[in-house]
């Protein structure tokens, strides 16, 4: 972050703190209308998300470090289609449906490995690492077969630094254009120079947006994270930046009464770095949302990114992907273990609320949710869902009104 951007955020902390002291609602900011709970529970809305969000969005499928050599592959299937991600002889990473063009068998079985070619186990049709059909057993039995036109069906596959994304929508904006302002603002976190050090998986009994919502606001810190986070971070100074395409950031300053922050929650607080770009990650907590399903907490060194995957209308798989700079020396395993345990403990606190929320939604006790100013990123997220699905496709009782256009920072 540049010095003027850091100064600007500090100025915005001050505005939020003084607003909190005087109990003023921000002048001119609209009160947010309630959001219908059916957006979390109605099968019609879930189906619209499948059609318009999961089939048309850039989705994180892995990290370049998982595929170090030509021929390295991994299978991925978290959004309703089987994707085969493979590094070619030219070192380019590509993605295809894991579906043979002959009669649809899967090409690769298992989760990851290395191969010279992609050969179907059903009848032996064989493709090269770039997806071209190169061999058909008894090819004379298929008169007129155009091998050049029967390569594997590609998926869009693009990189944000070392992170691999796929998209089924061949007309989607290029990934970096989709990220836009978010990628610009997060450039100091060097996504091209990070490696994965751990992935923690969780399965939760709630709609994917219930758990995502919990990570999009700081209003819950004092009540939910009483001893873990609240002693260090002061939600009243929270600054929210809402960017185009549904992305956003939330920066929560450290408590002003503490002369030195503990390292319990400010990720870089214990670091010896004096890199001026990272001043704020040593004194505050910066988290970001990448639409549709990534939330990360930034730090100069180790930090987690969470990816949220619906496994049903009321169930979610969460991956906490912990990354670190690839050139940093291997962490002391004891420190790494403590850090990971700390993430897991905070996650447990967040997860402790979600089953009850789902139950309240399912039983009809709560028919709409109320969002305050500090929760406006959740409304922004719903606006982006609305924009992508198209209001005209949404049953009237589940629609929301766009309110935040003027507050998006371009
Ligand atoms: S289905 Fe793949 S070779 Fe027949
Ligand atoms: Fe939380």
Task: Note down, in words, how this protein is organized.
The protein is of the alpha+beta class and 410 residues long. The protein has two domains: 3-56 and 180-407, Naphthalene 1,2-dioxygenase Alpha Subunit, Chain A, domain 1 (Alpha-Beta Complex), CATH 3.90.380.10; 59-167, Rieske Iron-sulfur Protein (3-layer Sandwich), CATH 2.102.10. It is built from eleven helices and 19 strands. β8 and β9 (133-135) form a beta hairpin. The radius of gyration is 23 Å and the shape is globular. The mean pLDDT is 93. Residues 214, 220, 224-225, 350 line the site of fe (ii) ion.
Topology:
Blueprint: H1 3-22, E1 35-36, H2 38-41, H3 43-54, E2 59-63, E3 72-76, E4 83-87, E5 93-97, E6 112-114, E7 118-119, E8 126-127, E9 133-135, E10 154-160, E11 163-167, H4 175-179, H5 181-185, E12 194-204, H6 208-214, H7 221-224, E13 239-242, E14 248-253, H8 279-283, E15 284-290, E16 294-298, E17 303-312, E18 315-325, H9 333-351, H10 354-362, E19 368-369, H11 376-389
Antiparallel strand pairs: 1-19, 2-11, 3-4, 3-6, 4-5, 5-10, 7-8, 8-9, 10-11, 12-18, 13-14, 14-15, 15-16, 16-17, 17-18
The structure holds FE2/S2 (inorganic) cluster and fe (ii) ion.
FE2/S2 (inorganic) cluster binds next to loops.
Distinct ligands: FE2/S2 (inorganic) cluster, fe (ii) ion
Strand order of the largest sheet: 2-11-10-5-4-3-6
Structural class: alpha+beta
Tally of helical segments: 11
Q: Spans of 5+ residues with little confidence (pLDDT < 50)?
A: none
Q: Estimate nothing, just give the exact number of structural domains.
A: 2
Q: Which architecture of the largest domain per CATH?
A: Alpha-Beta Complex
User: How much helix, percentage-wise, in residues?
Assistant: 25-40%
What best-fitting shape do the alpha-carbon axes yield? globular
Q: How widely separated are the two ends?
A: 17 Å
Mean pLDDT, nearest integer? Answer: 93
Number of strands: 19
Looking at the structure, the CATH topology of the largest domain is Naphthalene 1,2-dioxygenase Alpha Subunit, Chain A, domain 1
Oligomer: single chain
The radius of gyration over CA amounts to 23 Å
Task: Specify the CATH class of the largest domain.
Answer: Alpha Beta
Taken in chain order, the helices and strands follow as: HEHHEEEEEEEEEEHHEHHEEHEEEEHHEH
CATH-defined superfamily of the largest domain: Naphthalene 1,2-dioxygenase Alpha Subunit, Chain A, domain 1
* Share in β-strands: 15-25%
Largest sheet: 7 strands, antiparallel
């Amino acid at each position: 972050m540049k010095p003027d951007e850091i100064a600007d955020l500090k100025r915005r902390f001050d505005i939020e703190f003084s607003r909190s002291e005087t109990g003023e609602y921000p002048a001119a900011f609209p009160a947010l209308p309630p959001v219908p709970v059916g957006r979390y529970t109605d099968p019609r809305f879930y189906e619209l998300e499948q059609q318009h969000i999961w089939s048309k969005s850039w989705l994180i499928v892995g990290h370049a470090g998982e595929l170090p050599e030509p021929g390295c592959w991994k299978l991925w299937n978290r959004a309703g289609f089987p994707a085969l991600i493979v590094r070619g002889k030219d070192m380019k990473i590509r993605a295809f449906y894991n579906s043979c063009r002959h009669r649809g068998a899967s090409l690769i079985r298992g989760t990851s490995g290395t191969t010279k070619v992609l050969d179907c186990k059903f009848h032996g049709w064989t493709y090269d690492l770039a997806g071209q059909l190169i061999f058909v057993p008894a090819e004379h039995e298929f008169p007129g077969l155009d091998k050049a036109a029967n390569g594997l069906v590609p998926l869009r596959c693009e990189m944000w630094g070392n992170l691999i994304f796929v998209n089924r929508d061949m007309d989607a904006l290029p990934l970096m254009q989709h990220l836009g302002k978010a990628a610009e603002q997060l450039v100091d976190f060097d996504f091209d120079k990070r490696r994965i050090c751990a992935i923690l998986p969780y399965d939760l009994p709630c709609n994917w947006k219930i758990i995502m919502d919990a990570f999009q606001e700081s209003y819950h810190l004092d009540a939910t994270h009483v001893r873990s986070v609240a002693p260090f971070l002061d939600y009243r100074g929270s600054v929210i930046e809402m960017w185009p395409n549904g992305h956003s950031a939330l920066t929560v300053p450290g408590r002003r009464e503490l002369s030195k922050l503990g390292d319990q929650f400010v990720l870089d607080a214990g670091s010896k770095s004096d890199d001026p770009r990272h001043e704020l990650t040593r004194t505050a907590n910066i988290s970001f949302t990448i639409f549709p399903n990534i939330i990360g907490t930034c730090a100069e060194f180790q930090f987690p990114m969470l990816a949220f995957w619906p496994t049903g209308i009321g169930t979610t798989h969460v991956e906490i992907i912990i990354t670190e700079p690839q050139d940093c020396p291997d962490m002391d395993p004891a420190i790494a273990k403590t850090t990971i345990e700390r993430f897991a403990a905070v996650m447990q606190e967040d997860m402790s609320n979600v089953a009850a929320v789902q139950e309240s939604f399912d039983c009809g006790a709560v028919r709409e949710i109320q969002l305050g100013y500090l929760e406006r990123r959740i409304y922004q997220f719903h606006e982006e869902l609305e924009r992508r699905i198209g209001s005209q496709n949404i049953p009237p009782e589940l629609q929301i009104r766009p309110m935040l256009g003027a507050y998006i920072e371009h």
